[in-house]
Amino acid sequence: MESKYRHLYKLLLDKIDRREYEPGDKLPAEGELMEAYGASRDTVRKALELLVQDGYIQKARGKAAEVLDKNKFNFPVSEIASFKEIYRFSDSKPKTIVENLEIVKGDKNLMAALQIGPEDEAFLLERVREIEGEKIIIDKDYFSRKVVENLPLRAAQDSVYEYLEKELGLKIGFAMKEITVHMATDEDYRLLDMGSYDMIVVVKSYTYLEDSTLFQFTESRHRPDKFKFVDFARRKL
């Protein structure tokens, strides 16, 4: 049975999709939503938080939630989430195109990134992500074969994390990420629909198992106009 807060989330999302609430509009206050939908305060707050997480609204303490521009896609900096998980509630029908899947070894930069030796092997997986008919992300993933001995094409086309966790039984723990902006390369222009953009946002991730084993290095290259990077920060006193 669907939870009450997820049901309310879908009702509010439907109003946003149908442009009853335009970008920049304020949603009704929590009390108004409680009365309108016969929901508890906890249900309303959970539904609004899910809309925040999925990039549809922004919310500040003491202020009404504001609808965001849907033309920008939400990229969770402080979460470890697959592309499939990020867009699980999206109606934009994202598409994954596998450009390359091969075994590599001996690359000094890769050895340093994955902390492996010259004779150790890694899978290189290159994928292009297409959203609403535009190719806007290149994902380059390197997986240490010390941990991931096999990586089937079907997993690369669907969800690698789902394969690692459900089929290999791996426990993914945490990641370190860095975000920088660079001039676009020839490869970016070749694989992405860059239009007039000449810059690219690069997210590098080092992902570890729960036992602190580094098993993945990722370089994710994003066309800058379609993405906002979000995090939750709390002031330390």
Q: Helix proportion of residues, in percent?
A: 25-40%
Count every beta strand, where a strand is a DSSP E run of 2 or more residues: 10
- Percent of residues in beta strands: 25-35%
Query: What is the CA-based Rg, rounded?
Result: 20 Å
> What are the secondary-structure elements, in order, as H or E?
HHHEEEHEHEEHHEHEEE
Strand order of the largest sheet: 4-5-6-9-8-7
Structural overview:
The chain has helices at 4-17, 30-37, 41-53, 83-86, 108-114, 153-157, 160-167, 186-191; strands at 57-58, 66-67, 73-76, 95-105, 121-131, 134-144, 172-183, 199-209, 214-222, 227-230. By secondary structure, it is an alpha+beta fold. The strands form three sheets. The protein has a six-stranded antiparallel beta sheet. Strands 1-2 form a two-stranded antiparallel sheet. Strands 3-10 form a two-stranded parallel ribbon. Helix 1 (4-17) crosses helix 3 (41-53) and helix 2 (30-37) packs across helix 3. The termini are far apart.
